[in-house]
Amino acid sequence: MTPASDLSSASNNRANSHHSTGPRTAAGKQRSSLNALRHGLTGHTVVLPTEDQAAYQRHLKRFVDQFQPQGALEEQLVQTLGDAAWRLNRVAAAEATYLTLAAEQQRDSIQTNEPRAAQALAQAQAFHQQSHSLANISIYEQRIARLFDRTLNQLREIQAERREQERHQMIDAAQVLCMHRNRDIPYDPAEDGFVFSASEIEAFVRRRERIDEAYSLSDLHLAAAS
Hints:
elongated; mainly alpha
């Protein structure tokens, strides 16, 4: 295509866009809304333009505060978990909105003067006519729920493994610290590759000493009672 034809095509597209104003009738607008909901559910964008970015950030922060991720892998899993939960919440809201819009399309076909009956009949027809779309929404919801469950299980396993490693490392660090303390020698945990600070190790040692003391007193009381 030549540059001249490119310019001509672009001009035609701009001219056509001025004539295209989208759906004009109420029914057309409702169909457009339903299509937007479909694309919103199946799209890959986590936060849609119609959603509140600040609300999403608050939602994600609650997950970060709860799981306290450490390292890139845990952070990614928490991000995926929060995103999946956000999308699940969207499904529930979108399904209700979808049915409301679909029921509105049926109002003109309902022949009754009773508002409640008209609403019930419109909803019933909406369920019937949109059964395929509702089934797709259900499949989509189940897919996200499975992703949420898999991610949660993986995160728990990784964090449990990390905490067990940290526990063993803390025990080793406490042993080395006690050795230096008995010899009255200053100790820097970083020299042995420990990521804990000296104050953290000291707190662990004091806690362990108090627990040992409590168990010893309990044993003495049991022995005296027997």
